[in-house]
Every structure is written in C-alpha cells, then in structure tokens.
Design brief:
By secondary structure, this protein is an alpha/beta fold. It is built from 10 helices and 15 strands. Strand 1 and strand 2 form a beta hairpin. The radius of gyration is 25 Å and the shape is globular. The N and C termini lie far apart (97 Å).
Length: 361
C-alpha cells in the first residue's frame, strides 16, 4: 500500500504584536458606555415582574433617539425589540408610557421596530442527539430581517422561549450564543438577551439560570433586582454587573422607576430633558433668524443646505447635536412656529423653512 502524503491545510494568518507599533490604539466601542459593548451578545437577567423588559424597551427608544440611558452615553442607531411575552397592544401601551416619561412624541420614534411572537414555536435552533445545533426558519427570518433593516440593536425577550436546549449543558448554551453572535458579526449590531434567573440564581444574587454557560458565553451579563437594603421603597432597582469582559467589573447601578421609565437614582429628573429641548428650540430659532437675515435659504432636508446641518456646524450652536436640532425642527413645525414651503420650478422644487406669514405670499 502506497503511503499518501499528509493532507495540506491552510496556514493560520498570524500577526506579530510588533506590527501594532506606530498604529492608533483602537477604542472600545459601546452601545451604552461601560454597560453593553457593541457587536456582541449580552444578557440582562431578572426575576419575573422586576421590569427588565421595560428597561430594555426604554433602551431601544433611547438608542433610536441618541438619548442618554440610565445616565450613560449611547451610540445612536436603529433597534428591534422582539418579544415572546407581550402582544402589540401591550407594546403600544408601554411605548406610550415611556414616551410620556421621556417627554417625547411617539411619532418621533421612527427607528424602533417591534415584533410580537406570541404563540407558535419561537425557538431559534434545535439540537440533535449529538448536540449539533440547526437554526430554525424563525432564526433565518430574524437574521434576514436584521440584515434588511440594518438594526444596530436587537433585544430578544426572552431566553426561555428562544432557547430549545438544556441550559445545564454548556456545549448547547455556547452553541446557541454563537448562533446569536453570527447576527452581530454579519450585521455589526448588538444583541441583548432577556433572561429569568433560577431560584438558586436569585438566592445567591448572581442572576444565573442553569450552568455557568450563560455568563461564560456572553461578554456582558447584568442582573436587575430590588436592592436588599432599601427598605420599602418599591421603585428602586439595582442593576448589578455579574460579568464585564470589556468594562468595569462588579459595578452596581441604582435606578429609580418613575412615570414608567428608569432613571439613574440621584442623577436628576427627566425634567432636565425638557429644559434641554427648550434650550435647543431657542438656539434653533436664534440661528434661523441670523441666517435668514443673511438671505440664507434653509431646507428641511439632510443636505448641506439643510437647517439642521448648517446649525450643527455653527460655532454658536454650543455643541448641540444634529439630532437635537432635528427634533426641534419637527416640534417647531408641528406647533406652527415655522412652516414648510415648496419653491422653485416643477423640475427643481425644494422644500424650505419659512415663517408662517410667508406661506401665503
């Protein structure tokens, strides 16, 4: 029998550390600064009824508006909130409650989509006898939707409905998290799983359920619960960090649930948001008057002649972000302070911002 040569495998494309020399050190990327890293899978665990679904629903809305979340800076983007527990009616009620608490209009939340998977098989993968995981049609539907809609954040509520394996089997848990990680890697987005802890997980304060596979498989694991030493104050919550590969370890964030939303305890009221938005309106109108006095023709678009683009780059804007000016413009048009007017010939019509009295000229 002739000896066959050993099979030829491709060599690993290794990198020498010395090649990092002289190059800028990359910054860690965060969805929520020091809480949820970008492009990874994270878990928020908590007992039933503690409010974790509401917390992450609020996160989706905060991300879509570029609004700070529990006192932390966020990366703005599109979000999908997928729930296996609530129907669209409940999602409507909760969205209205959060919007009122944040002092915004539901019409502003254009970059958050919801999907209620109530009833039917919601598992994302099935395991065979050899522990091989095969993605389900539902997973492929989710994957394709994320790719099509270009979401930056996907919240999946909750693990019990989406994971059809044995949570005490570390191999299965890791395979499931890797399946979700494929969504992150392909679409450069963040996935956050909502989970319920076991009785022992609640007793020991870890928030775990099953084996250590869950916290070991993800990059960030947080446990939402009521503080043990806060007496009868039922509105307080403790968001405790159980694992953070890329941020401060062991951090505890004390939150207060107020008017349907969560805010950092001692971090000020959302009345501060109303004051900020009032200031942005004033700055917008001041800059608008200045530009109009100089015969600027400002459009409502995102082009270089758009008001929000021009104002955001103006030194007198005081660092106000473009998104804040976008919100102010919508409010000023909705309440009639400013109007939109089509000008120019039919082939080159554009929509400009004018004073109300100019509409009928």
């Amino acid at each position: 029998m002739t000896d066959l040569p050993p099979p030829m495998f491709p060599k690993l494309e290794v990198t020498s550390i010395s090649e990092f020399y002289g190059k800028p050190v990359p910054e860690r990327r965060w969805l929520v600064r020091d809480v949820f890293p970008l492009n990874t899978v994270s878990i928020v665990s908590g007992p039933g009824g503690i409010g974790k679904s509401g917390l992450l629903y609020q996160l989706c809305i905060s991300v879509s508006l570029g609004m700070s979340f529990i006192g932390r800076e966020v990366t703005r983007g599109r979000a999908l909130y997928l729930t296996c527990e609530d129907d669209l009616s409940e999602l409507n009620i909760r969205a209205d409650e959060i919007a009122r608490g944040l002092g915004i209009c539901l019409a502003e939340i254009t970059d958050v989509d919801v999907f209620a998977m109530v009833g039917g098989d919601s598992s994302l993968g099935k395991f065979d006898k050899t522990n091989k995981l095969t993605p389900t049609f539902f997973f492929y539907s989710l994957f394709d939707t994320v790719d099509l809609r270009k979401y930056d954040l996907v919240v999946l509520d909750n693990v019990a409905d989406l994971f059809a394996g044995n949570e005490n089997d570390r191999v299965q848990v890791k395979a499931f998290v890797k399946l979700l990680a494929s969504i992150c890697e392909t679409n450069d987005c963040t996935v956050i799983l909502v989970a319920h802890p076991s009785v022992s997980g609640m007793a020991e304060g870890s928030g775990r359920s099953g084996s250590t596979g869950w916290p070991n498989a993800v990059r960030s694991f947080w446990y939402l619960k009521r503080p043990d030493d806060r007496g009868a104050d039922r509105d307080l919550r403790e968001l405790a960090n159980q694992k953070a590969n890329r941020g401060p370890d062991g951090e505890t964030i004390i939150l207060r649930r107020e008017k349907g939303i969560y805010r950092l305890e001692g971090g000020g009221s959302f009345l501060d948001l109303a004051a900020h938005r009032s200031k942005v309106r004033q700055v917008f109108l001041s800059l608008y008057r200045q530009k109009r006095a100089l015969n600027y023709e400002l459009t409502s678009t995102q082009s270089r002649t758009g008001a929000v683009t021009v104002f955001a780059s103006d030194p007198e804007a005081g660092g106000i972000k473009k998104h804040d000016f976008e919100v102010a413009l919508r409010e000023l048009i909705n309440d009639g302070t400013l109007k939109l007017k089509s000008v120019g010939p039919p082939s080159k019509t554009k929509t400009v911002i004018v004073w109300p009295e100019e509409v009928d000229e």
